[in-house]
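Methods: holo model generation. Sequences were used as deposited, without trimming of termini or removal of tags, and paired with ligand SMILES retrieved from the corresponding compound records. Each pair was processed once, and we did not select among multiple samples. The sequence and NAP SMILES for this entry were:
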Amino acid sequence: MNKLSLRAAVIGATGYTGQEVMRLLRRHPRLRVAYATSESSAGTAVPGHALRYVQSGAVPFDAVDIVFTCLPTGASGAVALRAHAAGACVVDLSADLRHGAGGAVYGLTELRRPALRQAKLVANPGCYPTGIVLALAPLLRAGVVDAARATIIDAASGVTGAGRTAKRELLYAEVAEDYRAYGVGNTHRHVPEIARELSAENGGVRPPFVFTPHLLPVRRGILETIYVPLAAGADAATLREEARAAYGEEAFVEVLAAGLPSLGDVVGTNRVVMGFADVVDSGAPLALAIVAFDNLLKGAAGQAVQNANVMLGACEREGLAA
Ligand SMILES: NC(=O)c1ccc[n+]([C@@H]2O[C@H](COP(=O)([O-])OP(=O)(O)OC[C@H]3O[C@@H](n4cnc5c(N)ncnc54)[C@H](OP(=O)(O)O)[C@@H]3O)[C@@H](O)[C@H]2O)c1
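and the model returned the structure below.
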């Protein structure tokens, strides 16, 4: 990154992820928000920034260095492609470009750094896939997962994971003091993304898995409990060793030497923390991987800023200190 101050545009700056990008950029040493968009609040002051919201159509994409598109899936990708065509570097937080549309590089930073360094257009990963793929990638690569049995993934997300748009099933009275599964039977929209990324880490072969998301009545955070069928000779210590070998040098991935993570360890940070445990008396060799991270940070805005830092040649940790 050669310029001291780069101009950023945040598209959809009133949403949960957009607000979080705005918050991170306020303390970023090199990125300065030049445009923040909202269709519904255009003309009003942006909290914490000396700016007013503008409509996304009013942003001169040829006059900014980096664009974060934080719109709903279905609306976001087209704006990202328009910004990219105008010459800006772009990180799209939606699912629109995650299958590679427009040549977008998949932005799971720790696994895709060489491609990200060359990228001008990045598709930021889904929140649930971020933790699942980070935990399972080194295990699949090392061949310590028994590919003949399904890996079971139970994941719970805080309510901000569903975005800020009002929905009856997300009213306080509907979610408070309750806990429920949704998108069961591998029907959640993240399943194809998880399948594609796990296959890529498993020599092109899709490992069998079942993914069940749950809605947890907290504001933010994701905890994923992954039941890993073990290949002969492996145990939880083997999994821990492989994960530590993969992430020992990483600033934002922590593999616990002992114990298991909880949401309290990660909410408000860009960190993914994972721990491993043996399972006794399960009838077949099995271990647990428990993964925790903040859906709005490593699951969205934090990873987006991390990717922007890599794309722009900055230090990856800039603006992301816990
Ligand atoms: N929430 C998460 O944990 C999470 C994690 C990973 C990825 N993502 C993805 O990140 C994207 C943003 O998610 P979010 O949770 O921040 O959503 P959100 O809270 O619903 O915010 C969406 C933003 O887009 C604007 N908007 C809504 N409809 C629009 C439309 N049709 N055209 C243009 N602007 C529109 C909204 O504000 P105005 O009405 O003010 O314009 C708001 O600024 C989504 O694609 C989501 O899938 C979210």
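The chain has a mean pLDDT of 97.
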